[in-house]
Every structure is written in C-alpha cells, then in structure tokens.
Amino acid sequence: MEHKFNYLWNLTDLANVKPNGCKVFSTFSCGGGSTMGYKLAGYELVGNLEIDPRKNAAYVKNHHPRFNYAEDIRKFREREDLPEVLYNLDVLDGSPPCLTFSMAGSRDDKWGEGFKHDGITQRWDDLFFEYIALAKKLQPKVVVAENVKGLLLGDAIDYVRHIYALFDEAGYYCQHWLFDASKMGVPQRRERVFFVCLRKDLAEPFLVQKDFFTQVPLIDMEFNESPITCGMCNLELGDEIKGCYREDYERIKNGEPQKYLQSALVDIDSVHPTLTEGYSGKASHMPAWSPQWLSDSDLCKIGSFPQDYDFNGIKAHKLIGRSVPPVMMAQLSSRIYEQWLSKIVDKPSEVEEVEEAPKKVEETIVVEEKPQQEAIVVDSKHKFPYDWTLANATFTKDKGKVFSCFACGGGSTMGY
C-alpha cells in the first residue's frame, strides 16, 4: 500500500508543500514533531509555546516561529498582550505532559506536586486542564491534544471524563482516538491518544448521532497503511553496544533471561518498538542483527524526523523520543483539514441569495384504496398529524413489515 507521507524527508522539502490556508499554534512544542506534521500537511505555523529553553532554542532554530513564547502555560494564558492572530486560529495544538498516570492507569502518589525534568520544575497533573482553559480563551476552530496510552487505562478514565466535561464547557465537541503510528506511515510502533475537538458553533453540518444521547461531528480517523520494517529503512547503525547492555544483548542472543526488564532485541523484519528519550542511555531495544545502537540518521527515520534537523546540541533520542512523529501528525491534521476545515467557509453572498421561506399551506393527502375514509389534512410543517384516528392508519403506503415485542398498548406499533 502506498504511503501518503514519506518518513524519509528533509526540512527543505517543505518548500514544495502546497499551503492549505490554515493556521496552527503549537503548545508544549518540544522540538516540533507536531509542528512538522502540520507543515507537511500544508498548515502555516503561527508560533509556539515551550517552557524548556534548550528545546525551545532547537525549535526556533528549525522552525522560525513568528511568535515564540518560552514560559509556563499558566503565565501564557494570563497574558493580555497576545497577538490578534492567536484569537483567529484554525488549530490549537498541544501535548500536555501527564506523568501522574502510569501505563496501568493508576494515579501517581505525587499528585499535585511539581516534577523536575531536564532542569525544569513544573506541576504536571493539571497541565491538560490549563491547556483546555487556553483553548476556551483563544477559541480556535479545532483543538488537538496528544497524550500517553495510560490515560485510557484504570483510574485514569475519571481524568478523561473531566477532560470531556471541560471541553464541553469551553464550547467544543470532544472525541478521542488511540492511534498506532506504524499504521500511519511511521516505521515505529508508537501508540498515542489524540483528543480532537471541533467548536460547537461550527459543527452543525458535520453532526451525526453517535448513540441515543450523543451527537458528534463526523470525521473518518481510520488508518491502516502497510507497516515499514527496520529492514525497509536501510538502517546504517552507529556506536557499538558495550558494557552491561552488551552483556544483556549476548544473554538474549543465547536464550538466557536478560538482566534488565527493558532490554530486548528487535528483528530486522519487524517494526521498531516505541522509541523513548532514554534510548541507549538506559536498557533499550537493540538490533538483533548487529550489536550497535541506532545512529542519529536511523533515529530520524524511526521517528519520521527530517534528516537535516538541527538538534542544536541535544541528543537526537532526547527530542525524538518525546515528540509526536511528524508523519503521524501529518496524517491526522490532513484529515482535519480535508473533512472539517476545508468545508468551514464563510459564504455571505449565498446567505443574501436565500429565497424567502414559502408561506404556510395545507396539503391534502388522499387515502388510497379506501374511499370510505376521510382525507387527512396535514400542516405542511409537520410530517405526521397528532390529531388522527385508527381508521386513518393506512394513509401511507406499506413500506415493510415489523413485529413488536414488549408491545404494551401499541404505541410503537402505531408509529410504525
């Protein structure tokens, strides 16, 4: 199966992408994995927000945002000097960290405390809620939020319910999907949750009945592209695996139990597992065909990062392991544009040309094949009259057969 986006690419290739006219602002932007996905899909980057100064410097060096903010989202949200363009966004994007939930879905004991990561101390458990509050303030057409799979497991489901409630309060229809990057043209098995939200005042043309109580804006988010294996990527490999990890490598090769739980071998004919920011610095997946770590070029391939990305002194796996694969976001954002944004267009001229509504008339429906029955007069605004008798029940043609169970007095039967 052909892939919509190429995992092997360069930043210079973006010059050949046709703009789609939509604007995006990225929060929790890290090195710009999501940003590059939007750009591959034709979006214009307006700016970004990233609290980590080193990651932000790498972002600026590669993406040249018009508006750059290196601060906590809480401070950013309280700003009264935000440019007007941020109040006219097509998409607000973000990957708010949520380490307080493990992969088992249990809440961390340190709920409410600050986390220190890469020298930055910040409370993380409410960042998602801060992100939704920002969306409520800016009111973009679409809000996209990415997070870990653990958010859908165990006790975390209550957290998700709260996310839905806050998006509803902010004026959005919210839906979420669990995607696997390997089915979206990325040479990596990476499962991530994406919340995709459409502003309520724009959603009416897309609404469908999801269940008896719920309406949602329709969008097709099924991805099933063919997998890209390690062998297909022509990985060049890099430094030799040494020390305790080499010992674990040999143990696994010899069929012995590994010392470290995370140690594992990856077959050349399989898709590479999730790449983490601790790759090679901690026990990790290792190529079964050679005791070598992936090179920076290999890491870019596995993460669908561009080959000419400037990591600005940061180790490649640190950025790629924390980023949304660009091709993954390109797939998602192209669906958003094709199925929603491209159809949300102001058409004042068409509104002016709307014909005057027809005047109220009475329509006479004559009962067929039963001349002794009186005709039914129906107000044209209503499909069925509320004032009727059983003698009139054959005024419509037979459209099929029905059997009623738990029939009671026949309310449903008379409806049929």
SSE layout and pairing:
Blueprint: E1 23-27, H1 33-40, E2 44-49, H2 53-63, E3 67-69, H3 73-78, E4 91-94, E5 114-117, E6 120-123, H4 127-138, E7 142-148, H5 156-170, E8 172-180, E9 191-199, E10 207-209, E11 215-217, H6 243-253, E12 264-266, E13 285-287, H7 296-303, H8 316-320, H9 326-339, H10 348-352, E14 362-365, E15 376-379, H11 411-415
Parallel strand pairs: 1-2, 1-4, 2-3, 4-7, 12-13
Antiparallel strand pairs: 5-6, 7-9, 8-9, 10-11, 14-15
Helix pairs in contact: 1-9, 4-5
Structure write-up:
With 416 residues, the protein is an alpha/beta fold. The chain is built from eleven helices and 15 strands. The strands form five sheets. It has a seven-stranded mixed β-sheet, with helices on both faces. A hairpin with a 5-residue loop joins β10 and β11. α1 packs across α9 and α4 runs parallel beside α5. The longest helix has 15 residues. About 9% of the residues have low confidence.
Keywords for this entry:
single chain; 416 residues; alpha/beta; seven-stranded mixed beta sheet; two-stranded antiparallel ribbon; 11 helices; 15 strands; globular
Mean model confidence by pLDDT:
87
Sheet with most strands: strand arrangement: 3-2-1-4-7-9-8
Order of helices and strands: EHEHEHEEEHEHEEEEHEEHHHHEEH
**Share in helix:** 10-25%
Main pleated sheet: 7 strands, mixed
> What structural category characterises the helix and strand content?
alpha/beta
Instruction: Using the alpha-carbon principal axes, give the shape.
Output: globular
Query: DSSP strand (E) fraction?
Result: 15-25%
Tell me the number of strands. 15
Q: Termini separation (Å)?
A: 46 Å
What is the number of helices? 11
Low-confidence parts? 102-106, 347-378
Radius of gyration: 28 Å
